[in-house]
Amino acid sequence: MDAQTKRKIIINEISYWKQSRLLPEAYCNFLLTLYSEGNQELVPGKTQKLTRLLSIFSYIYIALVLPLAFLVIYFTEKNFVLQIPIFIFLIIVAIGISVFMKNDRYLHHFSAIIGALLFLLLSVKVTELFFSEPFFIFVTVVIHCFFWLFVGLKTSRKYFSAAGVIGFLITIIAFFK
């Protein structure tokens, strides 16, 4: 075991002592400063609380974003010019959560899925607005399916590959039925 790993184990143990009040707080603070060499990033505490708070916010956002998106598109009388920025904001936040929360495995993947679905929903709505032909909506969905397949193969995310193939097959069956 290298020195850095040993140091992290000791710092985590001292933090546990501090939380459970096994040693006085002043002693723990001294030991934490000593072993972390003044580097506060190594000491658990405020950064963990901030990360936990951000994670909770992200889970709430992901749980509410799809219903909010459907509400904005299908149940409001808002002008489409106002709907586009709302959707773009929702997509950017979902992708941002996916990028910045890589440590939280579930949140990372769910936010990527939500971002892809929101982008599909926005693309279909824009295509529906400009072209009323079903063929153009078909082409839009097929393009998204190929993009999902490409992303799934490139990033080794099987759920994107599966979604691309299954979406493509369902779209072909539904269009030519």
Helices and strands in order:
Blueprint: H1 3-20, H2 25-36, H3 46-74, H4 80-100, H5 105-130, H6 134-155, H7 158-175
Helix pairs in contact: 1-2, 3-4, 3-5, 4-5, 5-6, 6-7
Quick summary of this structure?
The chain is mainly α and 177 residues long. It has helices at 3-20, 25-36, 46-74, 80-100, 105-130, 134-155, 158-175.
Plain-language structure description:
By secondary structure, this protein is mainly α. It is 82% helix and 0% strand. The longest helix has 29 residues, at 46-74. The termini are far apart. The model has no long low-confidence stretch (mean pLDDT 82).
N/C terminus separation: 63 Å
Tell me, briefly, the overall form: elongated
Whole-number mean pLDDT: 82
**Using DSSP, what is the number of strands?**
0
* Tally of separate helices: 7
Low-confidence stretches: none
Structural class call reads mainly alpha
DSSP helix fraction: over 70%
**How much β-strand is present in the residues?**
under 5%
Major sheet description: none
CA-atom Rg in angstroms: 24 Å
Give me the strand/helix succession.
Answer: HHHHHHH
